[in-house]
Amino acid sequence: MIKHVVSFSGGVDSLATLLVALENCPREDIIPIFCDTGNEHQAVHDYLVYVEQALDIEIVRLKADFAEQIYAKRIFIARDQRRGRKHRKVPKTDRNGNPVYEKNKDGSVRMYPIYADNEDDLEDPIVIGQEPRQRIGWDSGKRIRWSNKAKRRALAALHPTGNPFLDLCMWKGRFPSRKAQFCTEELKRNMAVSFQLDLIDAGHRVLSWQGVRRDESMNRRNAKKIERIGGGIWTFRPIVEWTKLQAFKFCSSRGLQPNPLYKQGMGRVGCMPCINVNKAELAEISRRFPEAIEEKARWEKQVAACSKRMAATFIPAPGITPSQAKDNTIWHVVEWAKTTRGGRQFDLLGDLAEPTACASAYGLCG
Protein backbone atom coordinates (compact mmCIF):
# COMPACT_ATOMS: atom_id res chain seq x y z
CA MET A 1 0.00 0.00 0.00
CA ILE A 2 1.27 3.49 -0.90
CA LYS A 3 1.21 6.20 1.75
CA HIS A 4 1.24 9.79 0.51
CA VAL A 5 3.27 11.84 2.99
CA VAL A 6 2.74 15.57 2.38
CA SER A 7 5.23 17.94 3.99
CA PHE A 8 3.25 20.92 5.28
CA SER A 9 4.96 24.07 6.57
CA GLY A 10 2.02 26.45 6.85
CA GLY A 11 2.97 28.27 3.64
CA VAL A 12 0.98 28.60 0.44
CA ASP A 13 3.18 26.19 -1.56
CA SER A 14 2.72 23.32 0.87
CA LEU A 15 -1.00 24.12 1.14
CA ALA A 16 -1.39 23.93 -2.65
CA THR A 17 0.52 20.63 -2.64
CA LEU A 18 -1.76 19.25 0.06
CA LEU A 19 -4.86 20.29 -1.91
CA VAL A 20 -3.54 18.59 -5.05
CA ALA A 21 -2.96 15.41 -3.05
CA LEU A 22 -6.46 15.50 -1.54
CA GLU A 23 -8.01 15.90 -4.99
CA ASN A 24 -6.07 13.04 -6.58
CA CYS A 25 -5.43 10.42 -3.89
CA PRO A 26 -7.53 8.42 -1.43
CA ARG A 27 -7.94 10.55 1.68
CA GLU A 28 -7.22 7.64 4.02
CA ASP A 29 -3.75 7.20 2.44
CA ILE A 30 -2.69 10.85 2.84
CA ILE A 31 -0.55 11.79 5.85
CA PRO A 32 0.26 15.51 6.18
CA ILE A 33 3.27 16.14 8.45
CA PHE A 34 4.54 19.34 10.07
CA CYS A 35 8.10 19.53 11.42
CA ASP A 36 8.07 21.82 14.45
CA THR A 37 11.41 23.67 14.54
CA GLY A 38 10.63 25.68 17.67
CA ASN A 39 11.36 28.90 15.77
CA GLU A 40 7.94 29.56 14.22
CA HIS A 41 5.55 32.37 15.05
CA GLN A 42 2.41 31.32 16.92
CA ALA A 43 0.39 32.32 13.84
CA VAL A 44 1.84 29.30 12.02
CA HIS A 45 0.56 26.88 14.67
CA ASP A 46 -2.84 28.61 14.68
CA TYR A 47 -2.96 28.28 10.89
CA LEU A 48 -2.37 24.52 11.16
CA VAL A 49 -5.51 24.26 13.27
CA TYR A 50 -7.42 26.32 10.69
CA VAL A 51 -6.33 24.03 7.85
CA GLU A 52 -7.22 20.91 9.83
CA GLN A 53 -10.72 22.21 10.46
CA ALA A 54 -11.22 23.52 6.93
CA LEU A 55 -10.11 20.27 5.24
CA ASP A 56 -11.24 17.85 7.97
CA ILE A 57 -7.78 16.27 8.24
CA GLU A 58 -5.18 15.70 10.93
CA ILE A 59 -1.66 17.05 10.51
CA VAL A 60 0.98 14.96 12.27
CA ARG A 61 3.41 17.10 14.28
CA LEU A 62 7.06 15.99 14.35
CA LYS A 63 9.56 17.48 16.78
CA ALA A 64 13.30 16.80 17.09
CA ASP A 65 14.87 16.02 20.46
CA PHE A 66 18.56 16.72 21.15
CA ALA A 67 18.66 15.80 24.83
CA GLU A 68 20.92 12.81 24.14
CA GLN A 69 23.38 14.89 22.09
CA ILE A 70 23.48 17.60 24.75
CA TYR A 71 24.15 15.02 27.43
CA ALA A 72 27.04 13.61 25.37
CA LYS A 73 28.48 17.10 24.87
CA ARG A 74 28.34 17.75 28.61
CA ILE A 75 30.40 14.62 29.20
CA PHE A 76 32.90 15.64 26.50
CA ILE A 77 33.35 19.14 27.95
CA ALA A 78 33.72 17.85 31.50
CA ARG A 79 36.37 15.30 30.46
CA ASP A 80 38.24 17.43 27.95
CA GLN A 81 41.92 17.31 28.93
CA ARG A 82 43.52 18.03 25.56
CA ARG A 83 46.85 19.82 25.59
CA GLY A 84 48.58 21.95 23.01
CA ARG A 85 47.71 24.83 20.74
CA LYS A 86 46.42 25.18 17.22
CA HIS A 87 48.49 27.40 14.93
CA ARG A 88 47.28 29.13 11.79
CA LYS A 89 48.40 27.47 8.58
CA VAL A 90 48.34 28.76 5.02
CA PRO A 91 49.43 27.50 1.59
CA LYS A 92 52.98 28.22 0.42
CA THR A 93 53.29 31.30 -1.78
CA ASP A 94 55.66 32.41 -4.51
CA ARG A 95 57.64 35.67 -4.45
CA ASN A 96 54.64 37.56 -5.85
CA GLY A 97 52.40 36.41 -3.01
CA ASN A 98 50.36 33.99 -5.11
CA PRO A 99 49.41 30.70 -3.37
CA VAL A 100 51.23 27.57 -4.51
CA TYR A 101 48.83 24.74 -3.80
CA GLU A 102 51.11 21.80 -3.13
CA LYS A 103 49.26 18.54 -2.61
CA ASN A 104 49.75 15.72 -0.13
CA LYS A 105 49.52 12.07 -1.21
CA ASP A 106 45.85 11.98 -0.25
CA GLY A 107 45.12 14.93 -2.54
CA SER A 108 44.65 17.51 0.21
CA VAL A 109 46.37 20.90 0.07
CA ARG A 110 49.61 20.97 2.06
CA MET A 111 49.51 23.78 4.61
CA TYR A 112 52.42 25.52 6.32
CA PRO A 113 52.52 27.43 9.62
CA ILE A 114 52.84 31.19 9.57
CA TYR A 115 56.39 32.37 10.25
CA ALA A 116 57.64 35.82 11.15
CA ASP A 117 60.85 37.68 11.85
CA ASN A 118 59.01 40.38 13.77
CA GLU A 119 55.53 41.41 14.78
CA ASP A 120 54.89 43.35 11.55
CA ASP A 121 55.56 40.25 9.44
CA LEU A 122 53.39 37.87 11.44
CA GLU A 123 50.82 37.47 8.68
CA ASP A 124 53.45 36.50 6.06
CA PRO A 125 53.45 32.79 5.09
CA ILE A 126 56.61 30.96 4.13
CA VAL A 127 57.84 32.01 0.68
CA ILE A 128 59.61 29.84 -1.90
CA GLY A 129 63.33 30.61 -2.08
CA GLN A 130 63.59 32.15 1.36
CA GLU A 131 65.39 30.64 4.29
CA PRO A 132 63.02 29.11 6.88
CA ARG A 133 62.33 31.57 9.69
CA GLN A 134 61.81 30.85 13.34
CA ARG A 135 58.39 31.34 14.88
CA ILE A 136 58.64 34.21 17.35
CA GLY A 137 57.79 33.45 20.96
CA TRP A 138 54.63 35.53 21.29
CA ASP A 139 52.97 33.75 18.34
CA SER A 140 51.66 31.02 20.62
CA GLY A 141 48.58 29.95 18.65
CA LYS A 142 45.08 29.17 19.90
CA ARG A 143 44.47 26.97 22.93
CA ILE A 144 42.78 23.73 21.85
CA ARG A 145 41.12 22.47 25.01
CA TRP A 146 38.29 24.00 27.03
CA SER A 147 39.57 26.16 29.88
CA ASN A 148 38.21 25.50 33.37
CA LYS A 149 36.34 28.80 33.30
CA ALA A 150 34.74 27.95 29.95
CA LYS A 151 33.81 24.50 31.25
CA ARG A 152 31.99 25.90 34.27
CA ARG A 153 30.15 28.42 32.10
CA ALA A 154 29.12 25.86 29.48
CA LEU A 155 28.07 23.15 31.91
CA ALA A 156 25.89 25.63 33.80
CA ALA A 157 24.05 26.62 30.61
CA LEU A 158 24.04 23.37 28.61
CA HIS A 159 20.72 21.80 29.56
CA PRO A 160 17.88 20.77 27.19
CA THR A 161 15.16 23.42 26.94
CA GLY A 162 12.64 21.43 24.89
CA ASN A 163 12.90 23.91 22.01
CA PRO A 164 14.40 22.01 19.04
CA PHE A 165 16.03 25.03 17.38
CA LEU A 166 17.60 26.36 20.57
CA ASP A 167 18.73 22.92 21.75
CA LEU A 168 20.32 22.23 18.35
CA CYS A 169 22.29 25.49 18.48
CA MET A 170 23.37 24.90 22.09
CA TRP A 171 24.61 21.44 21.10
CA LYS A 172 26.50 22.86 18.09
CA GLY A 173 27.75 25.87 20.04
CA ARG A 174 26.67 28.17 17.19
CA PHE A 175 23.75 29.24 15.02
CA PRO A 176 23.23 28.02 11.44
CA SER A 177 24.45 30.14 8.55
CA ARG A 178 23.97 30.30 4.80
CA LYS A 179 26.97 28.03 4.27
CA ALA A 180 26.21 25.76 7.23
CA GLN A 181 22.42 25.49 7.14
CA PHE A 182 22.21 22.49 9.44
CA CYS A 183 18.85 23.61 10.84
CA THR A 184 16.97 22.40 7.74
CA GLU A 185 18.72 19.05 7.83
CA GLU A 186 18.39 18.38 11.56
CA LEU A 187 14.96 19.86 12.23
CA LYS A 188 13.07 19.07 9.03
CA ARG A 189 14.68 16.64 6.60
CA ASN A 190 15.89 14.10 9.15
CA MET A 191 12.56 14.13 10.99
CA ALA A 192 10.56 13.64 7.79
CA VAL A 193 12.84 10.86 6.51
CA SER A 194 12.72 9.06 9.86
CA PHE A 195 8.92 9.19 9.81
CA GLN A 196 8.80 7.82 6.28
CA LEU A 197 11.26 5.02 7.07
CA ASP A 198 8.99 3.95 9.93
CA LEU A 199 6.15 3.64 7.40
CA ILE A 200 8.36 1.51 5.16
CA ASP A 201 9.26 -0.72 8.11
CA ALA A 202 5.52 -1.16 8.65
CA GLY A 203 5.20 -2.57 5.12
CA HIS A 204 4.16 0.53 3.15
CA ARG A 205 5.63 2.27 0.13
CA VAL A 206 6.01 6.03 0.45
CA LEU A 207 5.44 8.88 -1.98
CA SER A 208 6.82 12.07 -0.41
CA TRP A 209 4.96 15.18 -1.61
CA GLN A 210 6.95 18.44 -1.50
CA GLY A 211 5.80 21.98 -2.26
CA VAL A 212 8.94 22.97 -4.18
CA ARG A 213 8.97 25.42 -7.11
CA ARG A 214 11.83 25.96 -9.55
CA ASP A 215 11.56 29.76 -9.45
CA GLU A 216 12.11 29.86 -5.67
CA SER A 217 15.89 29.96 -5.89
CA MET A 218 18.85 29.08 -8.06
CA ASN A 219 19.39 25.93 -6.02
CA ARG A 220 15.97 24.64 -7.08
CA ARG A 221 16.00 25.71 -10.73
CA ASN A 222 16.65 22.11 -11.83
CA ALA A 223 14.27 20.41 -9.40
CA LYS A 224 12.61 17.33 -10.89
CA LYS A 225 8.89 16.72 -10.72
CA ILE A 226 9.34 13.13 -9.60
CA GLU A 227 12.49 11.54 -8.26
CA ARG A 228 13.46 8.22 -6.71
CA ILE A 229 15.17 8.65 -3.35
CA GLY A 230 15.74 4.95 -2.65
CA GLY A 231 14.73 2.55 0.05
CA GLY A 232 11.12 2.52 -1.12
CA ILE A 233 10.71 6.35 -1.10
CA TRP A 234 9.83 8.50 -4.10
CA THR A 235 9.62 12.31 -4.09
CA PHE A 236 6.81 14.06 -5.96
CA ARG A 237 6.74 17.84 -6.53
CA PRO A 238 3.41 18.58 -8.23
CA ILE A 239 3.77 22.39 -8.34
CA VAL A 240 7.41 22.51 -9.40
CA GLU A 241 6.48 24.47 -12.57
CA TRP A 242 4.09 26.87 -10.82
CA THR A 243 4.70 30.44 -9.69
CA LYS A 244 3.91 31.81 -6.23
CA LEU A 245 0.89 33.70 -7.55
CA GLN A 246 -0.47 30.52 -9.16
CA ALA A 247 -0.28 28.80 -5.77
CA PHE A 248 -2.17 31.67 -4.11
CA LYS A 249 -4.88 31.64 -6.80
CA PHE A 250 -5.24 27.84 -6.62
CA CYS A 251 -5.75 27.88 -2.84
CA SER A 252 -8.15 30.80 -3.08
CA SER A 253 -10.21 28.96 -5.70
CA ARG A 254 -10.63 26.13 -3.18
CA GLY A 255 -11.93 28.55 -0.54
CA LEU A 256 -8.90 28.63 1.76
CA GLN A 257 -7.39 31.77 3.23
CA PRO A 258 -3.59 32.22 3.11
CA ASN A 259 -1.48 32.26 6.23
CA PRO A 260 -2.07 35.71 7.83
CA LEU A 261 1.69 36.32 8.02
CA TYR A 262 1.69 36.87 4.24
CA LYS A 263 -0.39 40.02 4.84
CA GLN A 264 2.05 41.22 7.49
CA GLY A 265 5.08 41.70 5.27
CA MET A 266 6.42 38.15 5.34
CA GLY A 267 7.65 36.73 2.03
CA ARG A 268 7.88 33.23 3.52
CA VAL A 269 6.25 31.74 6.59
CA GLY A 270 8.21 29.39 8.80
CA CYS A 271 11.07 30.39 11.05
CA MET A 272 10.85 33.91 12.46
CA PRO A 273 13.22 35.13 11.49
CA CYS A 274 14.90 32.67 9.17
CA ILE A 275 18.70 32.88 9.08
CA ASN A 276 18.28 33.71 5.36
CA VAL A 277 15.85 36.57 6.01
CA ASN A 278 16.25 39.55 3.69
CA LYS A 279 16.77 43.11 4.85
CA ALA A 280 13.22 44.39 4.26
CA GLU A 281 11.58 41.41 5.98
CA LEU A 282 13.84 41.69 9.02
CA ALA A 283 12.91 45.35 9.39
CA GLU A 284 9.22 44.39 9.12
CA ILE A 285 9.61 41.68 11.77
CA SER A 286 11.26 44.15 14.16
CA ARG A 287 8.30 46.56 13.72
CA ARG A 288 5.48 44.02 13.93
CA PHE A 289 6.95 41.30 16.13
CA PRO A 290 9.64 42.84 18.38
CA GLU A 291 9.16 39.94 20.80
CA ALA A 292 10.67 37.61 18.16
CA ILE A 293 13.84 39.73 18.05
CA GLU A 294 13.99 39.87 21.85
CA GLU A 295 13.72 36.08 21.96
CA LYS A 296 16.65 35.68 19.56
CA ALA A 297 18.72 38.09 21.65
CA ARG A 298 18.14 35.82 24.66
CA TRP A 299 19.05 32.78 22.57
CA GLU A 300 22.31 34.43 21.55
CA LYS A 301 23.34 34.67 25.21
CA GLN A 302 22.39 31.03 25.87
CA VAL A 303 24.22 29.67 22.83
CA ALA A 304 27.25 31.88 23.50
CA ALA A 305 27.49 30.37 26.99
CA CYS A 306 27.73 26.92 25.36
CA SER A 307 30.39 28.05 22.90
CA LYS A 308 34.12 27.78 23.50
CA ARG A 309 34.69 31.26 22.04
CA MET A 310 31.83 32.72 24.14
CA ALA A 311 30.19 34.28 21.08
CA ALA A 312 27.17 33.42 18.96
CA THR A 313 25.27 35.74 16.63
CA PHE A 314 21.91 34.67 15.20
CA ILE A 315 22.47 36.65 11.99
CA PRO A 316 26.05 37.96 11.52
CA ALA A 317 26.09 41.72 11.10
CA PRO A 318 27.45 42.86 7.70
CA GLY A 319 31.23 43.13 7.81
CA ILE A 320 31.53 41.36 11.16
CA THR A 321 33.91 38.40 11.40
CA PRO A 322 33.26 35.45 13.78
CA SER A 323 36.03 36.72 16.08
CA GLN A 324 34.16 40.02 16.45
CA ALA A 325 30.74 38.42 17.01
CA LYS A 326 31.07 38.64 20.78
CA ASP A 327 30.34 42.35 20.70
CA ASN A 328 27.51 42.13 18.14
CA THR A 329 23.96 40.89 18.51
CA ILE A 330 20.86 40.57 16.38
CA TRP A 331 20.00 44.14 17.37
CA HIS A 332 22.96 45.37 15.31
CA VAL A 333 21.55 43.61 12.26
CA VAL A 334 18.05 45.01 12.93
CA GLU A 335 19.45 48.55 13.03
CA TRP A 336 21.26 47.88 9.75
CA ALA A 337 18.01 46.54 8.23
CA LYS A 338 16.38 49.92 8.86
CA THR A 339 18.93 51.71 6.66
CA THR A 340 19.19 52.48 2.96
CA ARG A 341 22.04 53.34 0.59
CA GLY A 342 24.17 50.40 1.71
CA GLY A 343 23.73 51.14 5.41
CA ARG A 344 24.83 54.78 5.13
CA GLN A 345 21.44 56.36 5.85
CA PHE A 346 18.39 55.48 7.95
CA ASP A 347 15.17 54.91 6.05
CA LEU A 348 13.18 58.00 7.07
CA LEU A 349 9.94 56.59 5.65
CA GLY A 350 10.29 53.11 7.13
CA ASP A 351 8.44 53.85 10.37
CA LEU A 352 5.56 55.80 8.82
CA ALA A 353 3.46 52.71 8.07
CA GLU A 354 1.38 51.42 10.96
CA PRO A 355 2.52 47.99 12.26
CA THR A 356 -1.09 46.78 12.00
CA ALA A 357 -1.50 47.83 8.35
CA CYS A 358 -1.67 45.16 5.66
CA ALA A 359 1.58 44.73 3.77
CA SER A 360 1.89 41.96 1.20
CA ALA A 361 4.50 41.37 -1.47
CA TYR A 362 1.94 39.28 -3.41
CA GLY A 363 -0.93 41.76 -3.69
CA LEU A 364 -3.12 40.10 -1.04
CA CYS A 365 -4.26 43.34 0.60
CA GLY A 366 -6.74 44.28 -2.10
From TrEMBL:
Coiled coil: none annotated. Pfam families: PAPS_reduct. The keyword rRNA processing does not apply. Residues 4-275 form the Phosphoadenosine phosphosulphate reductase domain. This is Phosphoadenosine phosphosulfate reductase. GO terms for molecular function: phosphoadenylyl-sulfate reductase (thioredoxin) activity. Its EC number is 1.8.4.8. InterPro entries: PAPS_reduct_dom, Rossmann-like_a/b/a_fold, Sulfate_adenylyltrnsfr_sub2. It comes from mine drainage metagenome. Keywords: Oxidoreductase.
